Amino acid sequence: MGTRQDMLPTARGISTVHSIDDLRKLLDSSVWGFVVELLIRTRSYDAGLEGAERLSEILQKHKDDISQNEFDEFFKSIHTLKLNMLDKMDLWAEYVAHWESLRESTSYELCYSKPSSVELLEEKEVNLKSEWSLRRSFILRVEDEFVFIHWLYHASRRYELIKRKLDRRFSGRQRKSDFHAAQLDLSEHEIRRRIIEFERIVKSIFVQRSC
After folding, report:
1. Crossing angle for the helix pair 68-88 and 156-170, nearest 10 degrees?
2. How many helices (H) and strands (E) does the chain have?
3. 20-27 and 68-88 are packed helices; what angle lies between their axes, rounded to 10 degrees?
4. How far apart, in whole angstroms, are the C-alpha atoms of residue 192 and residue 186?
5. 146: β partners
């Protein structure tokens, strides 16, 4: 008898990735978002985490076979998935450790238009709007009309939230709302229903794109 993961197209797809060409097809922008969405809809977080580890190994193995830009984009996609799955599995210590490791070891950038207040970033007394106060520690460089921010900026609020969850665990103040629902709470029938419904949505999207 097969496992629940055997039912999932995403789990089967990740397990068949062996070459860099396979990796390119899976991580293509027209495919990857659907892969991640189905993992989340079916709460297949174990499969997602295992998949991220597997894809990371394949990427490192073929690092010299692809351009630096392609490697960087694949790396971000894979490790964003890993963070997402650690979060969904409530593996808070592992999430924090991985996030901090990526924050320290990578310098990929996001580009934003520069607000006028950024010119004063070096002045400690400047009171920026809260969003830019948060961004300040993530700013890598400022050039002309653009600000370049560390790619983990968009995960920074989630990181801070998970650290608070971890603190509550250590102090014995955990809340039921701290935890995500698990796949075990879904029947096999419900998982199949979600897969079929998702496939219907994906087909309709591709039909619209072809029109």
Report:
1. 30
2. 9, 3
3. 60
4. 10
5. 113, 143
Each residue of 134-162: pLDDT tens digit?
677 888 888 888 888 999 999 999 999 99
Backbone phi, then psi, for 141, in 5-degree steps? Answer: -165, 160
pLDDT per residue over 57-82, tens digit each?
Answer: 999 999 999 999 999 999 999 999 99
Cα 7 to Cα 1, 23, 32, 43, 187: the distances in Å are 11, 21, 18, 13, 12
Alpha carbon distances (Å) from 86 to 44, 93, 94, 172, 208: 12, 9, 7, 21, 34
Residue 19 carries which DSSP code?
Answer: S
Distance CA 207, CA 200 (A): 11
Smallest CA-to-CA distance from 35 within 22, 19, 51 is with: 51
Beta strands in the chain (DSSP E): 109-113, 139-143, 146-150
111 phi/psi in degrees, rounded to 5: -105, 130
Q: Which residues in the chain land under pLDDT 50?
A: 1-2, 4-7, 120, 122-128
C-alpha Rg value of the chain to the nearest Å: 20
